[in-house]
Amino acid sequence: QAEWQGVNQFAFYTDEMDQRMIERQTLETALRSALDRGEIRVAYQAQVNLADESLCGIEALLRWESPQLGSVSPERFIPLAEEIGLIGELGELAFRFACNQVADWDRVGFRVPRLSVNLSIHELEQGGFVERIARALARSGIDPSRVELEVTESVLMSQTGDARAALSAIREMGMRLAIDDFGTGYSALAYLKRLPVQRLKIDRSFVKDLGRDLNDESITRAIIGLGRTLGLAVLAEGVETREQAVFLSREGCQEAQGYLFGRPMGAAELARRWAPRRDRGGSVRR
Ligand code: C2E
Ligand code: MG
Ligand code: MG
Ligand code: MG
């Protein structure tokens, strides 16, 4: 009886492993051709000043709409891209598309104060990374000081020589750095003041239960205080409710991003929502 069950279980696990390998293989094959086929786009999410809910920046977020697989989350395809060596191309695409979009908007009078683009450690460690983004930035013509790159704590902590050099080059070009998902990593706090970072983005896992969970409220308050002490700007991620926005604003958090202010959306939609409208009299209204 036991033996029989064992055999069955083995077969079950093998099937499941096969299934997972097939899925991964399918995903990998699809991702490899997605770039050439133009299936990868960039969505933009507003970042707002909490004081008046004006637009202070946008975050560029990769989107993949596959004809066979439907829309695939970046949580799935970014790690895969890192694994199979495609993240350089994907990251460059996000950066280039976003810079060009901001430049296009400049030309029609919609001035986005800041552009944030996510960066993975694998990109930083790739040869030629700095040259590629420098070229894309120069071609777009937008000022480097308007561009912020988001990295996670683990990226900042586990810096290899190449990554460290790339981060310094980013700073020398005049771009800024933000720590994404702050609080979920393992930063030694003393490190913070030595890192070339200008902004902390409070991870949405702490924001989610503001108003309900005292621990999350304490952590959030502490991060805001830390930012203030170290002279770093603080932005809260994943703000979905008015209650959360009020709490954050009252605690001195300057900026926020989340579904309350808008989901990630296509460029045209973002402009419709946020660009100043000129009526016939030439005056600007929102
Ligand atoms: P992230 O950089 O922390 O981006 C924020 C994520 O939270 C986005 O998920 C966004 O859609 C989501 N989000 C924003 N507001 C809310 C909210 O109010 N509630 C909830 N529940 N979620 C919210 P998304 O677009 O699925 O991206 C996931 C992650 O994929 C990003 O996390 C980032 O780490 C990575 N990613 C996306 N684009 C790029 C890219 O161009 N390069 C790299 N290296 N990573 C990227
Ligand atoms: Mg981010
Ligand atoms: Mg984040
Ligand atoms: Mg993230």
TrEMBL record:
Residues 24-278 form the EAL domain. It is found in: Cell inner membrane. This is EAL domain-containing protein. It comes from Thiocapsa imhoffii. The chain holds residues 818 to 1103 of 1103 of the full protein.
